Amino acid sequence: MSEDLWTPHAPSNPEFSIPALSVPEGVVAGSVTLIIPTFNEAGNIGELLSRLAGSLPAGLACEVLFVDDSTDDTPAVIEKAALDLPFPVSVLHRENPVGGLGGAVVDGIRATGEGRPGTDWIVVMDADLQHPPHLVPELVGEGERTGADLVVASRYLPGGSRAGLAGNYRIAVSRGATGLAKGLFPRALRGISDPMSGFFALRRSAVTADALKPLGYKILLELAVRCRPAKVAEIPFVFQDRHSGESKSGAREGMRFLAHLAALRSATPLARMLGFGLIGLSGFVPNLAALWLLTQAGMHYLPAEIAANQAGVLWNFLLIETLLFRDRRHRHWADRVGRFVLLANADLLLRIPLIALFVARFGMQVLPATALALVTTFVLRFAATEALVYLPRKARTARPTRS
Ligand code: GDD
Ligand code: MN
Predict the structure, then answer these.
(1) What pTM value is reported for the model?
(2) Is residue 401 part of a domain?
(3) Is 70 close to ligand 1, i.e. is its CB under 6 Å away?
(4) Distance between CA 117 and CA 29 in Å, rounded?
(5) Assigned domain for 304 exists
């Protein structure tokens, strides 16, 4: 890699909003900011920082920013370890840990300032030494050499491996998640063999923190899909065993991952409408199941139809909430359920007069008239649900201003 990348170069960063714990004499906060998210990693900090110090070329233009959501003494451990290092170290401790790991990384990116002159590169890595610190110069060097905006450390290139991924179960999950993400985002993930990697270098100028709405662990996926870096490069790496402590990911992260994929995929109105339709179709299953149960239990089929329909409506509501409009839940939940259920039932009530209108007034056949009524009420219900249940706060509160 080019040597000059690591020599301190002005201007230093007055805008770096978090004061460094210690800035060694003669070192200028530099062209590489390492963002390291931490959640209870006290046992890894010392080893991580000393290995970083041993890996980074002397006279470096580099700083380390921990974005910490810990409930243990990790910040104090960092503070102590930061004292005799050749680079500045800061901690951004978040009292309100929104977005988990991904949210921490975005807050770190934001703290380096938009268009800040000092940081050319951001490197994101884990604190538990599963990402080898000695590869940091190589990641940045590869970006400089190729002119890429994003350099991913990949476990799936020749020379890379997932040695530290514990057990067949986790390997299968990781493979499945990678395949799913690549299948859903073939264009955004072209050239990225390991979109689940949490170890990468990013040109500061290629990212706008405000464009990111991370959800859980997969911050690289979020960056690749929402920021679309123009050029991507990769280097291989061997995913190591965790140095100390335990992994924080679990089944809950799996659910968040699926919700994250849905949120990324449904970013356009047309995609949201498609999702709305698919979820609507899936609602037939709980609807029919409830109908069967209720009629089995001896209920007359007409009231049973009405009750069973509500089961389908609630099913749709839960899926639409978590998969489509997760970031638009501004109203109170009871308010949202009420409005959603009303709209869903209004849809049924509207359908019959609409069919009658198409047949009697426009002379349509019953079948096409019914199909047209279904499509019409579907589009109306989608538009009404978006506007009346999930309209973004800004648009809802915007009032024409009088001068
Ligand atoms: N600030 C913050 N907040 N940090 C967090 C949080 C959080 O809520 N959750 C986890 N972290 C930190 C951990 O302290 C660690 O430094 C890093 O994020 C990764 O967490 P692990 O719990 O060690 O994750 P993992 O080993 O299961 O997952 C790793 O491998 C995946 C690929 O299989 C990570 O590198 C993922 O990014 C990667 O996708
Ligand atoms: Mn880990």
Answers:
(1) 0.79
(2) no
(3) no
(4) 11
(5) yes
Q: Given the structure tokens 């037939």, which residue do they identify? A: 284
pLDDT at 339 over 50: yes
Q: Are residues 307 and 254 in the same domain?
A: no
CA–CA gap between residue 32 and residue 137 (Å, rounded):
10
Residue the block writes with tokens 């979820």: 279
173 and 105 in one domain?
Answer: yes
Nearest CA to 194 among 179, 209, 212?
179
What average pLDDT does the structure give for the chain? 86
Mutate to test the pocket of ligand 1, among 101, 169, 218 (most ligand atoms within 8 A of CB): 101
State whether 224 and 304 are in the same domain: no
Residues 166 and 274 in one domain: no
Residue nearest to ligand 1 atom 29, measured at CA: 198
Point out the ligand nearest to the CA of residue 162.
1
Show Cβ contacts of residue 121 under 8 Å, excluding neighbours closer than 6 positions: 31, 32, 33, 140, 143, 201, 202, 203, 204
The domain containing residue 194 runs over which residues? 3-265
* 147-161 confidence digits (pLDDT tens): 999 999 999 999 998
Residue 189 lies inside a defined structural domain of this protein = yes
Task: For residue 156, give both structure tokens.
Answer: 């799936």
Q: Are residues 289 and 370 in the same domain?
A: yes
Q: Decide if pLDDT at 180 tops 60.
A: yes
State the CATH number of the domain containing residue 220.
Answer: 3.90.550.10
Strands, DSSP E only, in 51-120? 62-68, 89-93
Q: What pLDDT digit, counting tens, does each position of 94-129 carry?
A: 999 988 999 999 999 998 876 555 678 999 999 999
Mean pLDDT confidence for 213-232: 93
Q: Which atom of ligand 1 is least distant from the CA of 218?
A: 39
**pLDDT of 36-92, one tens digit each?**
999 999 999 999 999 999 988 766 688 999 999 999 999 999 999 998 888 889 999
Do 176 and 89 sit in the same domain of this protein? yes
* Distance of CA 38 from the midpoint of ligand 2 (Å): 10
- Specify whether 368 is located in the same domain as 333: yes
Tell whether ligand 1 has an atom less than 6 A from the beta carbon of residue 126.
yes
Closest ligand relative to 41 C-alpha: 1
